[in-house]
Amino acid sequence: MIKDRALPVLTVVAMIIAVWYAGAALLNLKFEYDQAERIGKEMSFTEALPKTMAQERPVLPAPHQVAVEIWQTTVEKKVTSKRSLIYHAWITLSATLLGFVFGTVLGILLAVGIIHSRVLDKSLMPWIITSQTIPILAIAPMIIVVLNSIGITGLVPKAIISTYLSFFPVAVGMVKGLGSPDAINMDLMRTFNASRSQIFWKLRWPTAVPYLFTSMKIAIAASLVGAIVGELPTGAVAGLGARLLAGSYYGQTVQIWSALIVAAILAGSLVAIVGLVGSWLNRRMGLREA
Amino acid sequence: MSNTVISTKNLDLVFQTADSPVHALSDINLDIEKGEFVSLIGPSGCGKTTLLRVIADLEQPTGGEITVNGMTPEQARLARAYGYVFQAAALYPWRTIEQNIALPLEVMGIAKAEQQKRIAENLALVDLAGFEKKHPWQLSGGMQQRASIARALAVEPDMLLMDEPFGALDEIVRDHLNEQLNKLWHRTQKTVVFVTHSIPEAVYLSTKIVVMSPRPGKIYDIIDCDLGDERPLDIRESEKFLKIAHRVREGLKAGHAYD
User: Fold this and answer.
1) pLDDT digits (tens, 9 = 90+) for B58-110
2) What's this protein's family per the entry (chain B) (predicted)?
3) What is the pTM of this model?
4) B87 in A contact zone (CB under 8 Å)
5) CATH of the domain at A91
6) Domain boundary residue among B156, B175, B205?
């Protein structure tokens, strides 16, 4: 099984890295030629090529430069250091997780309301959809400023931006999930004379669990994006977003790319964890894996 | 006090659909006595399932009268006067067989010990003892349907309403379940209303067969089916059985003729 999958996966990874190297060479070449021209020297392609892989501020850093930067800022730095990527990742992760929990709870509550009331369905759904058409970059600074003015700073404002992005997939997924019991199962509950809350806990909720985990996978990735975006307008104090912003102020492309890669690894791990919890729960509930 | 448990008078039901109203039930007059096994038979669209659903208070009639146990169907449903068995087993996949049977008991707020007692009793009754901890997907279709009958019986209702419960099963399993259902009915003395489109099934199981015809759904014939209480499967080759089956078939044919 693992052998069957390893080859195609490794092939794709190798191709991405190859394209990345080629891109780095091409994009960074111009700088080397310009440098040579400035001091009146001719530079051949074979002379320039190795230099494109070792620039201090490359247009596109080579993979190994990013790898070295990540190594130096994670393994070789104390986690308490302001230069440690683990420290910054933790700052972002804590806001992500808090926002994800808020968003999931909010999404579920909205879905429960919408499922049980036509009025809520008609009055809330348009606003829920509208909320997602506003670019998060536009609304994030306002949330930060407004919350700052009433004395809420630090983790919570960032978490709220995460919530803003993550409640949506959960709400939509759970409206679908809680509404998905078959007519026959609803009729069955009716013949038992079950109350609304009994129908909810004994039928709707278990039916919706697989939908919940599918939407939570999307929500946790969206939460991370929200937390990073939330770190940009605060003046780049700490967090992966701050590293991105600081990197772009000072043209530290290697730093930017390291932060990006760490964010991607973080997102991938979070989605995988949610997925694993989901399939563990499915097995516990005795459902056959699809 | 009469023994009539279900009584309808000029019962009418018209479904309002987008294009035109559908006359699902028209002028249904039917009395069902306590302990009877009544089959509703007819082609699709004759309203047999709709009639069963009206009895169960899953549909509302638009005219006429109906009483169940001397009450309105809603009162009867609230009093949990019946157990309903659907076309599909409708077991919850995340519950084990015993948890599925406990479902109506949990809803009713019955004590755990009593729940355990009823689960054991009713699983034994449908021959599923030993399958308590299995999940529905681990059981065959016939076993799933038996579990759903046990779930309906666990409520300890006076009445069983069954909507083509064996329609999706193959003939061999169906024969077997028919035999078991006959024994079950004989043993428990419950009133059963049974929807089917199989003539041999209806004749084998019933004390009374209601032949229905479609558009609008109405009763064409009511046939007494006096084959005794205990019925071995080979009763189906007896002359009496074939005679009743013939009359049902003629009724179904005639009901179709003015279609």
Assistant:
1) 999 998 899 998 899 999 999 888 999 999 999 999 999 999 999 999 999 99
2) Belongs to the ABC transporter superfamily.
3) 0.84
4) yes
5) 1.10.3720.10
6) B156
Residues A187-207 have a mean pLDDT of 94
Residue B86 to residue A189, Cβ atoms within 8 A: no
- Which A residues, 179 through 198, put their C-beta within 8 Å of a C-beta on chain B? 182, 184-185, 187-194, 198
The answer to the question of residue B87 being in a domain is no
Residues spanned by the domain of B240: 4-81+157-257
Where a domain ends, among B134, B156, B178? B156
Please compute the mean of the pLDDT values over residues A34-54 and round it to a whole number. Answer: 85
- Calculate what percentage of chain A has a pLDDT beyond 90: 57
Closest Cβ–Cβ partner in B77, B86, B96 for A193? B77
3-state secondary structure chain A: CHHHHHHHHHHHHHHHHHHHHHHHHHHHHHHHHHHHHHCCCCCCHHHHHHHHCCCCCCCCCCHHHHHHHHHHHHCCCCCCCCCCHHHHHHHHHHHHHHHHHHHHHHHHHHHHHHHHCHHHHHHHHHHHHHHCCCCHHHHHHHHHHHHHHCCCCCHHHHHHHHHHHHHHHHHHHHHHHHCCCCHHHHHHHHHCCCCHHHHHHHHHHHHHHHHHHHHHHHHHHHHHHHHHHHHCCCCCCCCHHHHHHHHHHCCCHHHHHHHHHHHHHHHHHHHHHHHHHHHHHHHHCCCCCC
pLDDT value of residue A216: 96
Instruction: Show the domain range for A151.
Output: 85-284
What pLDDT is attached to residue A275?
94
